[in-house]
Amino acid sequence: MKDSQVFVIVGAGLAGAKAAQTLRETGFGGEIVLLGEEPERPYERPPLSKGLLLGTAERESVFVHEPG
């Protein structure tokens, strides 16, 4: 059963993504909205600077979660 509540997380970085993940893992079934300025979904900065920019990692490897 889908929950009718909406949880808004201000800040769509790593902390916001992990907060949304925790909500799902603890059973929250409502809508989760992440608000952030960046056009990309949340990503982790260490893999971005250590892998992607050096050409040793794929672009998708820096994101916290899958697109859905």
Tell me what you see in this structure.
This protein is an alpha+beta fold and 68 residues long. 29% of the residues lie in helices and 15% in strands. It contains two helices and two strands; from the N terminus they run βαβα. The protein has helices spanning 14-25, 45-52, and strands spanning 6-10, 31-35. A two-stranded parallel sheet has the order 1-2. It is elongated and about 45 Å long. It starts with 5 loop residues before the first strand and ends in a 16-residue tail after the last helix. The relative contact order is 0.22.
Largest sheet composition? 2 strands, parallel
CA-based gyration radius: 14 Å
Tally the helices: what do you get? 2
Uncertain regions: pLDDT < 50 for 5+ in a row? none
Return the string of H and E elements: EHEH
Distance between the termini: 19 Å
Globally, the shape reads elongated
The share of residues in helices is 25-40%
The chain-level structural class is alpha+beta
Number of strands: 2
Mean pLDDT: 82
As a percent range, the share of strand residues is 5-15%
- Strands of the biggest beta sheet: in what spatial order? 1-2
Oligomer: single chain
